[in-house]
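Support request, priority: normal
Reporter: lab tech (M.K.)
Component: structure prediction queue

Hi team, I submitted a job for ABC transporter permease from Streptomyces showdoensis yesterday, and the status page still shows it as pending. I've pasted the exact input below so you can check whether something in the sequence is tripping the parser. The sequence length should be 432 residues. Please let me know if I need to resubmit or if it's stuck on your end.
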Amino acid sequence: MANRFRGTAVAAAFLLPALVLLGALVVYPIGYSVQRSFLDRSGESFAGLDNYVALFTDESIRTAVRNNLIWVVVAPTVATALGLVFAVLTERVRWGTAFKLVVFMPMAISMLAAGIIFRLVYEQDPDRGVANAVWVGVHDTFAEASGFPRARPLPVHPLEAAGGGAYVTRSPVRGGEVARLPLIGVAPAQMPEGARPARTPAPAAEGIAGVAWLDFTRGGGGKPNVVDPRELGLDGLRIEAVKGGTVVARATAAADGTFILPPAADGAVLRLPASNFREQYDGVEWLGPSLVTPAIIGSYVWMWAGFAMVLIAAGLAGLPRELLEAARVDGANEWQVFRRITVPLLAPVLAVVLVTLMINVLKVFDLVFIIAPGSAQDDANVLALQLYRSSFGTDADLGVGSAIAVLLLLLVLPVMALNIRRMRRTRRETRR
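Reply from support: The job had stalled in the queue. We restarted it manually and it finished. Here are the results:
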């Protein structure tokens, strides 16, 4: 009896510091948050369930709840799936270790640093944002880019609007004449790299000769409708000759702006098609209201797919190889081995990764706060960010903030209970 009492006292003495810390850092804050959630903004009057009612009536809080549901469903699933694919595919290659190191490396970066990195990656300007630089490059590979967005004629020029963004000459062109197609509205720095000083060609013996140029002299000077020495040709401008609504000839301006149309263009109206003047494609608004949440989830997956890969690879290393080889001997292909043998045997590890990431995304704050711009932060809102805004924002209400904290706790508890239950089941199976 004395030995048992002495053992209990020793155990209590060792556990006491941990229990004190647990009470001070976990139990007391939870209790205080629950109490504060039933008080009003000032903390002096009892508010009942008003703060909890606000969780389901305030539009920003409802958006946060909806986005948290998207996070919980999408982010852990995608990160776990990528981790599984990476772990399986790199198992048999010699450079697999190096690949795993590269994929796991983002885990060494803080959420703050990752947020700053991806804020730059998702920058709208293709010259700065990597995502849009790639997207615009792919787009321009399959779609013809406009060379002169916002270019236009002056009222004194021999061109007029034709509708749909195109321009036409005011009168038909005739053989023996030089067609002049002056435009303004293109900054000299945005002119094509191959543009050269414009020149007026001699009349063509056959067909129509012409010149298309930027009728603007840097520093002032020059005359409208006259090719001045310092004015540049509109290199690459597309010109069409139209008769009776039908295009009878086409030409493209050279580096000095000159072009020649065949004799069929005699008596035709020259048209500058709208494709010359389309606004350049600037890419996708990654941080706009519709894509900001998927974009931030993408940055989270970039960070945590390595974590999932390492845990799954560890589980994969412990699989009984004789089962995999037996399935291959029986005629199963690699996809069947993966789907019917590997994945079922890895189910406990996949459950650990999935549950861990679900708990993690319920608390996500840093990435949303850093990446989402102010104009889209309401659309990207999550509960942890709303907790911060409600508790410490310009219109702080600690009662509502405490209610959000309690809601987060209630959302985490079922996932934690599921994880504890799974761990106990695994322990019992191990003992058997």
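Residues 147 and 252 are 12 Å apart (CA to CA). The longest strand covers residues 208-214. Let us know if anything else looks off. Ticket resolved.
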